[in-house]
């Protein structure tokens, strides 16, 4: 029974990769990863892939890829986000049994996972491959921004070709977790919590005080009445006061808050 199950999984993976290749060919778009390892890398054995951006090493380390966020797998109920399974299968095909890695400057997240840049056998960034395939979103969280420039290019390739996640519009939804939205800034204030950019939705964007120096005052105020694109993790406020927006989206880097008014 176990042997049959493994064969079925291998068949599904092969089918996905085949369909993905055919789709890319049909659109005459060449998906090329742009990020190569800069500096020395170490080799590790992989125990298993958890989802599109998380793996376990054989030595027990749980590793979160830096620079990319992929759709969530619902391991409990099977209600996966769109392209979550595709991202997971693609990551499995890229990694195999071994992977090269570099530690990020801040190498551990609040869940205890190690934060690494991962590379395939050709020293190509796995985050870059996922982004080029449209199976994840680029994200910048200081100080772990080493490969941001080329990751931006990788994502742009998929976006321009409407691959994967870029087939659907990114309308704001009142849902906790990672999000990418296009909204209009209606008012801007600043206090000890940082910058607060209210939007035309039930959403306020927060640029936290500890990293607010990444934005100049002029740049922030210039966003008023502008259509912007923002990405990060959002949560619902505990306060039910009607004076405040119900949802807060935290943005931690200028790459993740862009004026897109001219694109409209």
TrEMBL record:
Q: Which SMART domains match?
A: SNc
Tell me where in this chain the TNase-like domain is found: 40-168
The leader peptide range reads 1-26
Q: Which PANTHER family match?
A: EBNA2 BINDING PROTEIN P100 (PTHR12302), SERINE_THREONINE-PROTEIN KINASE 31 (PTHR12302:SF3)
Q: Which UniProt keywords apply?
A: Endonuclease, Hydrolase, Nuclease, Signal
Q: Which organism is it from?
A: Marinomonas mediterranea (strain ATCC 700492 / JCM 21426 / NBRC 103028 / MMB-1)
What SUPFAM superfamilies does the record point to? Staphylococcal nuclease
Q: Does the keyword Nuclease apply?
A: yes
PROSITE patterns in the cross-refs:
TNASE_3
Name of the protein in its database record:
Nuclease (SNase domain-containing protein)
Q: Name one GO molecular function term.
A: endonuclease activity
Return the InterPro entries for the record.
Answer: SNase_OB-fold_sf (IPR035437), Staphylococal_nuclease_OB-fold (IPR016071)
Q: Which Gene3D superfamilies match?
A: 2.40.50.90
